[in-house]
C-alpha cells in the first residue's frame, strides 16, 4: 500500500440533479408533534411539496357531559336583571337590559301595565313618572318649588324687618280685611294694625280723627268709656261718607276704674262695630295701677260747672302722671310699671282680632 492509500479518503460531494435538491433527498420524520389536545386534526389527503403522506395519530375523544341551561324566567339571579340602587316607584314595571338584537322586539306602550296611584313618600313630589309630571307636581299648590319660594320670601321679609322694623306694617298691608280706627294717634293705630295683620296674615288698617262730646275728658267707669267709644264711631261714620256699614270701625277709650275703696286702675276699652253683620265686640286691656293722689288731683282740677262732671274729670290722668314722672303723657304706663300702653293695646287687639275672625267664619257658614 502506497502513501497515497494511507491518506483518508475525502467523500465525494453529491451531485445535484435536475429533478431535486439536497432537502428532497432527506426523508421527513415519521410523525409531526401535535399541540392540540381538545380537537382532532384531520390528516391531509394530499402531500405538499411532493412530500410523502404523513401518518397522524388521532387522540382519543374527550367525553362531554350534558349541561342543563336554565331559561331567563327560571333564573332568579340572572345577570340580565338590573337592580338599581334606588328602588323604582311602586307600580312601575321593571325592565331588564336587552341586547341590541332583543331591543328591536320591545313591548308596545299598550302592552305595558298601567301605573298605580299608590306611591311612597316620594309620591307627594313625583306622583307619576317622567320629568314633566315631576315639574307639574313641584309647581302646584304645596309643591317643593312653592315651599322654597315661600321660605325665601319669609327670609327676605325677616331681614327687611330686622333692618327697619317699620317695614313690617307695609309688607303685610293689603288683603281682604279693611279696618278703620277712630283715632289719628299712632299709639292706637299701630298696635291694632300689627294685631290684625298677625291674625289675618294681611290687613289694611287706617285711622281718622274722631271726637266724643258726650262724656268727660277723662271718663270714669265702664259705662262712661263705652258711651265715649260709641260716640267716636258714630262721629266718624257721619263725617266720612265712604265708611259704610260694611266697614268695621274700632274705637279705643281709656277710663279710670275704682275696684275697691281708693284702689284705682287705668284701663283701655276697645269696641269693634260692623252693623252690616250685626257685630259689636267689646274688650278691655290689662289694667295699670294709678296712685290715689293722682286721682285726687284730677278731681280737684274739675270744677262744679263742668258739664260732664257726672261722667268723669276735665283733665286726663295721663297728663297728671306724665307731669309727676316727667315723661310724655303716652309713656307714663311704661314709666310706672315697665309695660308700655302700646303693648297693652297690642295684647287686647290680638284677642279682639281673633274673636272677630271667628265671627266672620260663623257668618260665612250661615250664609
TrEMBL record:
GO molecular function: protein kinase A regulatory subunit binding
Compositionally skewed regions (Polar residues) per UniProt: 21-37, 45-58, 102-114
Keyword 4Fe-4S applies: no
Gene3D superfamilies: 3.90.950.10
Domain of life: Eukaryota
Ranges where the record places region Disordered: 1-120
Keywords: Golgi apparatus
SUPFAM superfamilies given in the database record: ITPase-like
GO cellular component: Golgi apparatus
Basic and acidic residues bias (residue ranges): 1-12
Keyword Amino-acid biosynthesis: no
PANTHER family in the cross-refs: PROTEIN PRRC1
Similarity comment: Belongs to the PRRC1 family.
Name assigned to this protein: Non-canonical purine NTP phosphatase/PRRC1 domain-containing protein
Amino acid at each position: 500500500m502506497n502513501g497515497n492509500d494511507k491518506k483518508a479518503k475525502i467523500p465525494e460531494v453529491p451531485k445535484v440533479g435536475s429533478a431535486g435538491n439536497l432537502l428532497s433527498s432527506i426523508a421527513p420524520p415519521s410523525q409531526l408533534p401535535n399541540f392540540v389536545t381538545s380537537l382532532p386534526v384531520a390528516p391531509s389527503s394530499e402531500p405538499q411539496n411532493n412530500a410523502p403522506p404523513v401518518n397522524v395519530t388521532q387522540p382519543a375523544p374527550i367525553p362531554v357531559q350534558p349541561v342543563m341551561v336554565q331559561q331567563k324566567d327560571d333564573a332568579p339571579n340572572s345577570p340580565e336583571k338590573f337592580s338599581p340602587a334606588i328602588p323604582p316607584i311602586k307600580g312601575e314595571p321593571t325592565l331588564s337590559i336587552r341586547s341590541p338584537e332583543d331591543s328591536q322586539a320591545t313591548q308596545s306602550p299598550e302592552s305595558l301595565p298601567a301605573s298605580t296611584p299608590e306611591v311612597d313618600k316620594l309620591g307627594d313630589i313625583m306622583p307619576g313618572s317622567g320629568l314633566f309630571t315631576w315639574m307639574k307636581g313641584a309647581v302646584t299648590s304645596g309643591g317643593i318649588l312653592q315651599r322654597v319660594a315661600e321660605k325665601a320670601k319669609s327670609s327676605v321679609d325677616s331681614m327687611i324687618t330686622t333692618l327697619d322694623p317699620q317695614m313690617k306694617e307695609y309688607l303685610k298691608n293689603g288683603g281682604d280685611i279693611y279696618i278703620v280706627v277712630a283715632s289719628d294717634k299712632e299709639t292706637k293705630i299701630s298696635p291694632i294694625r300689627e294685631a290684625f295683620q298677625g291674625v289675618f296674615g294681611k290687613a289694611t288698617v287706617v285711622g281718622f280723627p274722631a271726637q266724643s262730646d258726650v262724656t268727660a275728658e277723662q271718663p270714669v267707669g265702664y259705662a262712661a268709656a263705652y258711651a265715649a267709644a260709641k260716640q267716636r264711631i258714630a262721629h266718624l261714620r257721619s263725617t266720612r261718607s265712604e265708611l259704610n256699614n260694611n266697614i268695621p270701625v274700632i274705637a279705643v277709650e281709656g277710663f279710670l276704674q275704682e275696684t275697691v275703696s281708693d284702689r284705682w286702675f287705668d284701663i283701655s276699652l276697645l269696641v269693634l262695630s260692623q252693623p252690616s253683620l250685626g257685630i259689636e265686640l267689646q274688650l278691655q286691656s290689662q289694667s295699670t295701677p294709678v296712685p290715689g293722689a293722682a286721682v285726687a288731683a284730677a278731681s280737684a282740677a274739675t270744677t262744679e260747672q263742668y258739664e260732664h262732671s257726672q261722667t268723669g274729670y276735665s283733665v286726663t290722668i295721663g297728663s297728671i302722671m306724665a307731669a309727676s314722672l316727667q315723661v310724655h303723657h303716652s309713656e307714663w304706663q311704661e314709666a310706672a310699671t315697665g309695660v308700655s300702653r302700646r303693648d297693652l293695646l297690642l295684647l287686647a287687639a290680638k284677642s279682639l282680632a281673633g274673636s272677630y275672625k271667628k265671627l266672620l267664619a260663623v257668618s260665612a257658614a250661615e250664609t
